[in-house]
Description:
This protein has 870 residues and is α+β, with helices and mostly antiparallel strands. The chain has helices at residues 13-37, 218-222, 265-269, 301-312, 327-336, 389-396, 423-428, 431-434, 458-469, 471-477, 535-543, 577-582, 602-610, 656-670, 694-709, 818-822, 825-847, 850-866; strands at residues 51-62, 67-79, 87-94, 100-101, 118-119, 122-128, 170-172, 180-186, 203-209, 272-276, 292-296, 320-323, 342-345, 357-374, 381-382, 386-387, 570-576, 589-591, 597-598, 614-615, 620-621, 642-650. Helix content is 22%, strand content 14%. The strands form 6 sheets. Strands 11, 12, 13, 14, 15, 17 and 22 form a 7-stranded mixed sheet that branches. Strands 1-2-3-8 form a 4-stranded antiparallel sheet, with no helix packed on it. A hairpin with a 7-residue loop joins strand 2 (67-79) and strand 3 (87-94). Helix 1 (13-37) packs parallel to helix 18 and helix 6 crosses helix 9 (458-469). The longest helix is centred in the first third of the chain and has 25 residues, at 13-37.
Amino acid sequence: MKVRDRSPRGLGWWARAWLSATVAWVVVALLAVLPLGAGTVQQAHADSGSRTVQGPPVWIPSGTTGAGTTGPNGSVTVTPTTGLTDQVVHVSWTGFTPSVNQSGGGPATYAVPKNTKVDYAVRVYECRGTDPRITDCYGSSLYGADGSKGFLQKEPAPGTTTPDLPSNAALAVTGPDGSGSADIETWTADQSPSLGCDATHACSIVVEPNYGGDSLGLTAFLKHQPPGTTHCEVHTYDRGVRFTAEDQVTVQQSFGSPSYASGEACAWANKTVVPLTFAPTAASCAAGNSAFSMAGLPMAERALQQWRAGACLATSPLYAAYTSQGEPQARQSFLGGSGAEVALTSVPDTGAAARPYVYVPLVNSAISVVFEVDDPVTGRQIRQLRLNARLLAKELTQSYSQGPDAFAAATVKGNPECLFQDPEFLALNPASLIAPAQWPACDTVPQSLPIVVGNSSDMVRRLTSWIIADPQAAAFLQGAPDNWGMHVDPDYLRPSFSGYPTDILVPQDSSGFVAIDGTDYHEKQYEWAPVISGLTDTVRHVLAATPTCELVDHTGLYPRCPAENVGQRQLIGIVDSADAQAMSLPEAQLLNQQGSFVAPTLASMQAAVSDMPVDPKTYTQQLPYGASGTSYANDPNAYPLTMVQYAMAPTANLGDAKTTAVSQFLQQVTDFGGGQLYGREPGKLGPGYADLTPAQAGFAQDAIAHVAAQDGTLPGNQVAPATPPPTTTPGTPPATQPAAQTTAQPVAQDNSGTNSNSGVSGKSGSGITGAGDNSGAGNPPAPGAASAGSPAPSASASAAAPGSGLAPVAAGTPSPDRAGVARLLLPVVLIVGAVLLVGGPAALLVSGTAAGARLLTRLRRGAGAGGRTG
């Protein structure tokens, strides 16, 4: 009989069991503790639901004669595939045929839709259902046609293949190593009713590599076969006269019979289908009468849509109507009593209160400067970019010449042609920052001027307040040239222009140049056009890489600037952080007042919020742009365009039913166990937002109490409780607050622009001295701190500020908040020590029985459920 060795030379049964049980108890203890402080690590929004499926056998061509063979199957990965909303998903593949340029046969860096220059490109569609036909795929040449006929039918009339929006289909190339990728916006039924993708109607991503094959019926014609007969095994025509391996084949018709449109048939035969599921939205709710209405805050639209879906899908449904509207108009209507019951705003009203109401903080977010810029050599997207206030001032004042001096308008002669030629930009963005990539040359089309919202908004007000508060930007806007001699377009000087800050961006320069024939074409009048249809369309222009300009064609016509092809883009856009991160758009790092470049991440927004003073007249918060000696002026980690979103909620004359509904909704969305819990599910807080701090939650709870009481309280009269309120969601532990934190209290305004209560005299970046918007400038910082116990969302772009102790990170790479994790070390060490001393023997006894094992399992599950994870 073999006897188990219990000698000191190896771990005996007791020792191994004791060690295993101790480790189990340590894991349980850590699970119980980590969720309380892990909220500052950017991981909760890391997209789950990634799915990899087998792709088609790769085609291995041999020369241009059509010879070749098939090889192993490739693979396709889509991330994410579940719980989708209107967002961008990432599609990647391996083991595909490398794309090549027809001229020269070298590797292709980008492909142009319906073009003949590249062979073996890859199309990506969003399609109806999980077993789609070509007629189910939005933007295909046969979308919406008769599904039973497939490719054997005429193309629909022009425009019918894109009935809802311009096509979201993507065309990409495969690299020499057989891998490639593309991003595609997935539409819900709200964006594309014809696709109809929602929580009860699944859709799919179709990845279609064009490996050639005779899809045009040339072989069938020679063999006297019926028109439309395909021979996908015949590759004679892949790179010959008909070029069946290039994307133009998708709109070609079969040989010998113009009535059949079968050019895409062979490419479709190699398709890979990846099913998608969508999250419920407010549109998923059963029809019901709205309990109350809200208007305003386009920046918070994504949060409001998730919150509204959660409210109307709850056990006790609550229907809240919402209209995305410019905040100035929403405030005006609300104060006049003619608009929605609740106005949503980021900037407080500065006049005397026209009716009783209070400001309820809802969420923190930011303005993002996004960019889609490609390396002109490789076609690869550049993911890191730095800007300061003066560069944005140049972009927003039409100050680039957009062409050689010989053809430039007189107002901007001598200035750089575009941002990427500006010596200031190149100094902030040296080649080493993006190596081995390089910045593009300036195009003759004014496509690098920023895509911005063109209606009145708080976003524009805060953006231009930040710009004018910077001394260098302010000097430039007042006519002083920069260090390299560039000057502002004089049409943006007073008195022609009212100056910054402003609520609305309007082109000021409508001048032009005189052409050779002596005709004045007014080019600058058409080079830049802010998007007057709202923030959503502004984001879509960026996604579609469509500049908001018109061209001068010297005939008196001004056609719209064409969309830029992937691989040749040089777009800048100004949107909100939630849209930027939902759409996976790279976000620029901006120079803050301390002198650090910071991207909008959860950590940088939380840092900025902690620097915000509280206005005692309204109990609202804004960053004190231009004020020296403040926490913000000395904070290397604060993102400068962080904003707090508020609800203006009535405290009188609301009526019993609406009072209950408004109070209930505001309670749900500000609850740390509800609307402030990160996640993509209905009722939670999506990516691109930062949850309320404990201090803000305190203000929210007090304000909601006044709304519920309808006691006539006016802004600034509420008093925040001394401690943040506990969560009200049943079964969810209350959010905790570190002992060192204190609740933000209102402080008196200091109009001198300095902090009279602080002895701090550290550096203030570039010596900013309080120009511009005075709403909040000069206030001492409130001691509000980032909330504890909330898992942090991932960001589509992140960069550590210089001097923060973290290495710079390229936009698109999450950067964890190290301080948040460091706070956990002491309690973790103490718990581990206690577990080792006491828990080990006890765990041994418990783990030795089946009941004990079940108990351990319940403890682990309970610990995991106790954290605020999404």
